[in-house]
Amino acid sequence: MRKGHMTVLGAGLSGALLSTLLAQKGYQVQLFEKRSDPRKSGLEEGRSINLALSHRGWSALEQAGLREKVHDQAIAMQGRMMHSKTGQLSFQPYGTEEQAIYSVSRSGLNQLLIEEAEKAGAELLFQYRCEEIYLDRGEALIHSLENKTNVLTQPDLLIGADGAYSTLRTAMQKTPRYNYSQSYIEHGYKELSIPAKNGEFAIEPNALHIWPRGGYMLIALPNADKSFTCTLFLAYEGKESFAKLNSPADVTRFFETQFPDALAVMPELTEDFFQNPTSDLVTIKCFPWSRYGKNVLIGDAAHAIVPFYGQGMNAGFEDCRIFMDLLAECNHDYAQMVQQFQSLRKPDADAVATLALQNFIEMRDLVADREFLERKKIEAELHRRFPDRWVPLYTMVTFTNIRYSEALRIGQQQDQIMRKVMKHYDYASELTDQDYERIVSLMTND
Ligand SMILES: Cc1cc2nc3c(=O)[nH]c(=O)nc-3n(C[C@H](O)[C@H](O)[C@H](O)COP(=O)(O)OP(=O)(O)OC[C@H]3O[C@@H](n4cnc5c(N)ncnc54)[C@H](O)[C@@H]3O)c2cc1C
Fold it and tell me: Over the range 62-88, which residues count as b (16 or more CB within 10 Å of their CB) and which as e?
């Protein structure tokens, strides 16, 4: 039987991976992307220069047979390296010794996925911008920016992997009773850099560095060229904000007082600061993700989240894996398949959006808090003693494929228990074997 014709809008991370998976399974895939081919232009377009890849992302890459290839480009980060105001360092492992998240280059990964999509047989059309969608007919009008001509695509399924400001979703938003919300946090972000020093990493490479300062923070992830990409998350307005940093002297003063050890390894700080844009952080929710069963949204087009759990791309990749699993079972009934897909994924997308917002507070306020650190130690010990009965929330989200909605639910239960525990104990070392037994027995499985 003929495999269907799939049109994918957007050759970002999700669109390129899904196109690879579809083409590998013998679908006829057309992938339209408004940008030029990044393999030729070599441009670093888009957001963050590097990203944290974790278990969910790896699972989807494995499905495409790409684990090894991506692994070759990735740098393991085994935990958080906290930097105090006086430059004191403390390391918090993410999990067990073998558990790490991986820093990957966004453009490197995107190019690899585009290459793989092409190898698998997808037709790639760069500088083609989707301009209009005919939802009821399942068609899309695509404009070639090079030839100034239009193409009408009439696939069996139109897939919107066209990011947070998706054209397919914009068309859906014009239909009756469409649910849509976007909310910006008061913080923006700016990318900065720690270059290599004498050809080596200037700070510890196998860690995600955090300078938590309460209302704001600086983070740094390693790159293959031995530099680090830093991201400053700071409010747009207020006492300590981007609005207050108007001159090189303002920026230097701010870093001298807040991030002195980072400043020492950022020789290009002020140039970077005024050259690089300040960008917004948005959560986008919408539903349904399909109209008339002829189209579907995936990745950021369906659920853009703030980056504090390092899960946006991972969630998009998980969409791809689950999409392919459902497709394999649907017997060419795409309308039914996309219904199943959205019913399954929407609660998880909402849950990861909540988790991502919560983790901002954890990263900027709590990671340097004594009670929080003791609580983490107790939870790690619970996990060591009862690996199946107590899995810490961070571990569930980052190192398993447990549904995000389930992780959130279990995490809330754990939080209630741990709040009570922390009322009685100041330090993990005070707990006895019986205490651990008692704590884990409070978990219920319903
Ligand atoms: C600062 C920051 C840090 C982040 N860090 C992490 C992290 O550590 N880990 C993680 O998992 N996630 C992270 N994310 C999230 C991650 O970047 C996104 O979730 C991911 O890029 C989404 O991929 P996507 O393919 O769905 O969308 P996108 O990457 O936005 O790709 C959409 C593509 O569609 C194309 N397009 C748009 N409109 C059209 C059109 N009309 N016609 C044709 N093409 C079109 C665009 O050019 C683009 O190539 C971070 C995000 C930010 C902002």
Answer: ebbebeeebeeebbebbbbbbbeeeee
Q: In the prediction, which pLDDT does 98 show? A: 84
pLDDT band for position 431 (cuts 50, 70, 90):
very high
Of 223, 313, 314, 397, best ligand 1 pocket probe by most atoms within 8 Å of the beta carbon: 313
Q: Which amino acid, 446?
A: D
Please give the Cα distance from 185 to 164 (Å, whole number). 15
* 54-89 confidence digits (pLDDT tens): 999 999 999 999 999 999 999 999 999 999 999 999
Q: SS in 3 state form for 325-362? A: HHHHHCCCCHHHHHHHHHHHHHHHHHHHHHHHHHHHHH
Cα of 133 to ligand 1 centre, how many Å? Answer: 21
Q: What tokens appear for 201 in the block?
A: 């990493």
- Answer whether 226's CB lies under 8 Å from 189's CB: no
Q: How far is the CA of 235 from the centre of ligand 1 (A)?
A: 22
Q: What is the DSSP letter of 85?
A: T
Strand bridging mode 50-53 / 128-134:
unpaired
Element housing 219 (H / E)? strand 217-222
What the block records as the tokens of 126 is: 């760069």
The rounded distance, in Å, linking the Cα atoms of 143 and 99 is: 45
Confidence of residue 367 (pLDDT cuts 50, 70, 90): low
Between the CA of 57 and the centroid of ligand 1 the distance, in Å, is: 14
Mean pLDDT of 236-258: 98
Crossing angle between the packed helical segments 55-63 and 312-329, to the nearest 10 degrees? 40
User: Which two three-digit tokens encode residue 426?
Assistant: 């100041």
- For residue 388 the two structure tokens come to 């199946």
Residue 446 pLDDT greater than 50, yes or no: no
Residue 138: helix, strand or coil by DSSP?
coil
Which tokens go with 102? Answer: 């991986």
| Structure-block tokens of residue 326 | 């459902």
Q: What is the pLDDT of residues 183-219, one digit of tens each?
A: 999 999 999 999 999 999 999 999 999 999 999 999 9
